[in-house]
């Protein structure tokens, strides 16, 4: 089977600093990493490949330096890496990104082998939108399985996959037809280190680099800044809350009662609402 | 095990490892370089000064794209007591030359660049991979390495050990002893972030000009050690280091020393308002010539810090590292091109080449200096700096005392502190060790 894993190179959020004067994020010199959520997707994809055979292609869109992340994915054990890089892609929001990635997945399908599953992380740590995966899925007209916590089984002949999906109420067990797109939940596995042979292969591998044209993008106006309706209105650092914790002296009352009394004193409306609510019972 | 064989495996991607891997790859050998850090430079700590001449021999046009900070136009030597410094400063417009001689650099950036040159030359560079053991054959010849990756054994004709000062691999394989506490210094360092203009104003420089301050005296609390302040583009690197054996003996902590150095009235104004960007600690080989271990054997050579190649007197290390790496590679290439095996006898060529270079010549020159400074550390790092400071203050202070009387007072102080025989003895011993 052929699996594509979409990854993103992101700034290491643990090492981001805010400029003391301008209050903007200092991206310069901040080390980059593979979006941590994507690693769960990559590992799950490789496990699936190891189980049923086939290959894993990692795909990213980004500046030429994003090659570092792809090479790292190869070190972990991916079979092929494709970098979508073109100045036309610069400044893309989730809409434009998913447009370009979908084109690249189609191209990968045509060039190497038909794609059965696309894996992505559940979201990135820099954008936090969780929109690109579903966006790619919709454009490819694949079936969509988000927040997947476990791949239960895959039937390549019957062209179905069974997964567990975390939802607010509990765990759903879903069966879907292939091809599909899976966004993988965090904490589901731990990415492997890659063997010595993987590392050697990765050091020697050529990362495939595609421009918009190479990737078969049809409408260039849907890429990059031009294809991005999202507007960043303002970036600001949140001001820390000024409220301070108060010390409540129970003064002989039971501590819980004292606390509630104090809270109601500060929020009279809350008290009224609570009474109103209690009357119903 | 990996089926594929390499001509050479280089362990480590610091200055010496990169020099060796680059030279070997340029000479057409099949090279595998293994580095434990996330990228070349991620684990490497140095002041750091780059010596252009030794790098030019490896990358002639490095100035075109290497991440350099400032070229040095001024060197300041400071003898310090707790409140003063006596300085010898040398600054020359000659250093504003087309191809400057020394630069400040930031190793994490520089080593990445250096490593990219190694890759371009054709070597395979594996990061995030630790060599845990050397593989020897039945006759004790080193034939490869074992890494911490799955199926991590790789074989090669020769292994270049550029593993750094601790040299765990070589020690584990009984190629040499562990460095002794009185042969290594522990240095701590901080990077202070300041606006470019502030640095230029405080150090009296413009453009890409840079300044080095090297300081010794009471800042090391009677231990054998030195402090430094280097001006980078938008940061100041500052640190202090002393012999590990002295730290053991005195119970001083490196952290306290650094705090005191930073708060010294001569240093504090240089750093005022700065933001600490990074801190690091590292061992520095300081044993000199007498501490150099076996440099070669059947199937292996050792280069750089792991071979204790560091000139403590001149604060030079990276240039010795680069040179030893390059010479080891050249020797390996010569043996290889004669189609000779990588035996101890054949690899002796490396030692011969190193002996003929400035590396061993310089270390030999100062071979007695480490022992002298170590045994006399109280005198050289406490007593004399205080005497020098008192003498200079006495000299410059105008207070109505006749000059002759002032000179007498100073002389009395020196004799009282060290006695005539002590003074002559120290001068004689120092001159002899310097020779």
From TrEMBL, chain B:
The keyword Transmembrane helix does not apply. SUPFAM superfamilies: FAD-linked reductases, C-terminal domain, FAD/NAD(P)-binding domain. GO terms for molecular function: FAD binding; oxidoreductase activity. Its cofactor is FAD. Residues 369-435 form the FixC-like C-terminal domain. This is Protein FixC. Could be required for the formation of a functional nitrogenase Fe protein. Probably accepts electrons from FixA/FixB and reduces a quinone. It comes from Rhodopseudomonas faecalis. It comes from the Bacteria. Gene3D superfamilies: FAD/NAD(P)-binding domain (3.50.50.60). Belongs to the ETF-QO/FixC family. Keywords: FAD, Flavoprotein, Oxidoreductase.
